[in-house]
Design goal:
Layout (H helix, E strand, L loop, with lengths): L10 H38 L2 E6 L5 H13 L3 E7 L1 H12 L3 H5 L7 E6 L6 H12 L4 E5 L2 H42 L2 H9 L4 H37 L2 H5 L2 H31 L10
Antiparallel strand pairs: 1-3, 1-4, 2-3
Helix pairs in contact: 1-6, 1-8, 1-10, 5-6, 6-10, 8-10
Length: about 290
């Protein structure tokens, strides 16, 4: 009479399933981290292009203009300062109007100007208004042009985008923990009778937990490394189609993401393994038949 083979869960199969499942979850978290990094880079680039224009008096000498330019460049709020001389401005305005302004006025009505871009810390309407108010009190400055209302609207839009991305990150983080916890719990569940047997022979709780925690650490580390490898491949593949990805998400930033993915994978797997092991340590033999 042929014996009917017993249905059992392979330890290797359960470990492999855990690694694949955790890898996919960590990959999703890594992609979200890349999206957050790209969003942060875009936000910084937008903020670095926020500033104001300082129009100088036409009577200023080249020496005075150079001095003012050095002072602005050395200012704490200045990210960059671009100088445009009066002749260039006259040419640009004439091309814009389609008529030679010099022929109409007989002289150049424009003065030199500085295009000042502020640092991200000062890229808000209140800070720019305070800076421009001080500059307008300087006699040699003819006018300061800024658009604080536009700056405030940009900041509101950027803040909303950041809040949405953070909310998505928190939600995915919770979902990821639940998914990884379930995956690891199933791997421990397949060996729950081993836990019970070890209890019967007098093994302590810490002794029983140790191999499971080591296995959980290994699952988290291997899954994290595999997720990082897949993420690096997607990053390199994406940069081939759009070179701006190299600017938004440089490889220097990717290394921090890789480290975070591996650490998160290890921590979640260790926590999930400890919780699942403790659950079965407290159960009796009859309770072992229940999940």
């Amino acid at each position: 009479m042929t014996k009917k083979p017993k249905a059992r869960i392979s330890t290797f199969g359960s470990q492999l399933t855990s690694v694949v499942s955790v890898t996919l979850v960590l990959l999703i978290l890594g992609i979200l981290a890349v999206a957050l990094q790209a969003s942060s880079s875009v936000t910084d680039n937008i903020r670095r292009n926020i500033g104001f224009i300082v129009k100088l008096d036409r009577s200023l000498s080249d020496t005075d203009i150079s001095r003012i330019g050095r002072e602005m460049s050395a200012a704490q709020f200045a990210e960059s300062v671009t100088f445009t001389d009066a002749a260039t401005i006259l040419k640009q305005e004439s091309e814009l109007m389609g008529q030679d302004i010099l022929e109409l006025t007989g002289e150049n009505p424009f003065g030199a100007e500085f295009d000042v871009k502020v640092k991200p810390l000062y890229a808000n309407g209140d800070s720019i208004a305070a800076i421009t108010a001080r500059m307008e009190m300087v006699p040699v400055i003819d006018e300061v042009v800024s658009q604080t209302a536009v700056v405030d609207s940009i900041n509101v839009a950027l803040k909303r985008t950041t809040i949405v991305l953070l909310a998505i990150a928190i939600a995915l983080g919770i979902i990821s923990f639940v998914l990884i916890n379930n995956t690891v719990s199933l791997a421990v569940y397949s060996r729950r009778f081993i836990i019970h047997t070890m209890k019967l022979v007098g093994a302590t709780g810490s002794f029983i937990r140790k191999p499971f925690l080591i296995a959980g650490l290994g699952t988290g580390a291997v899954s994290g490394i595999l997720a990082c490898a897949l993420l690096a491949g997607l990053r390199a593949y994406g940069a081939r189609f759009d070179a701006i990805l190299d600017t938004l998400v440089p490889w220097a930033s990717m290394w921090w993401i890789f480290a975070a993915v591996i650490v998160i994978g290890i921590l979640i797997c260790l926590c999930a393994t400890a919780l699942a092991t403790n659950r079965y340590l407290r159960r009796s033999y009859d309770d072992m038949f229940m999940k």
